[in-house]
Write a structure and sequence with these properties.
Arc Repressor Mutant, subunit A, 217 residues, Rossmann fold, alpha/beta
């Protein structure tokens, strides 16, 4: 691999995204598209054996959630730059990703010119680069969010809510959950109502199906 080039890798489970990124990089001098990984495990394997300068990271991968993946990537390649490259533009998610210490956050709708400028900023400056259209602030009069897919629904749940959802899906009653988690039955019921509201569900059957799909049980 030519070290006169800046090596860029991508992890994204959609082939078309890789085609687009490669096309943009081919137009830029001194940039080389060195790897398109389709899963978190694939990119971890690649990084363990190949020096990479910058990684474009999709946040919704089929095998590993983004937070533990970022931590593992940093342990393998601590000097490599990481830029979230995603279609998701919810403020809570953006802030959560930035707290992990990534070097940039770009939307997949980013223009080629902004894409080029962002890569140069990330690589040449010790500052976080955030895309122009990325939402960093909530609207003054927020409405109840319309959750588009299961990934967005899952990230809306707190750690405790995911824990309770998992136990509900295992068939445990509110009383049993309260004993297992050392909280009151009333607290369990409150969490259950909040989970139903956040996921826009009305029945326990929907909760169980969702938990299974998300690997929470």
């Amino acid at each position: 691999m030519n070290r006169n080039y800046t090596n860029i890798a991508l992890v994204d489970d959609h082939p078309i995204v890789g085609i687009g990124v490669k096309a943009m990089l081919e137009k830029l001098p001194n940039f080389q598209f060195c790897q398109h990984a389709f899963t978190g495990q694939d990119i971890l394997t690649h990084l363990a054996h190949h020096k990479t300068d910058l990684l474009l990271l999709d946040l919704n991968l089929p095998d590993i959630e983004y937070a533990p993946l970022v931590r593992r990537i940093k342990s393998i390649a601590p000097s490599m730059k990481i830029c979230a490259y995603t279609a998701y533009n919810e403020t809570a998610l953006v802030k959560a990703v930035l707290r992990l210490g990534v070097d940039g956050y770009l939307l997949k709708t980013t223009s080629p010119d902004e894409f080029r400028q962002a890569l140069q900023t990330i690589l040449n400056h010790d500052e976080v680069c955030i895309g122009r259209n990325v939402n960093l602030t909530e609207p003054k009069l927020p409405k109840k969010p319309v959750l588009k897919d299961n990934f967005q629904k899952c990230i809306s749940l707190s750690k405790r809510e995911k824990e309770i959802l998992s136990l509900i899906s295992q068939g445990q009653t509110s009383q049993a959950i309260s004993q297992n988690l050392y909280i009151s039955k009333h607290t369990v019921e409150t969490h259950r109502k909040n989970i139903l509201r956040k996921l826009n569900f009305t029945t326990s059957t929907e909760l169980v199906k969702f938990a299974v799909q998300q690997g929470l049980v």
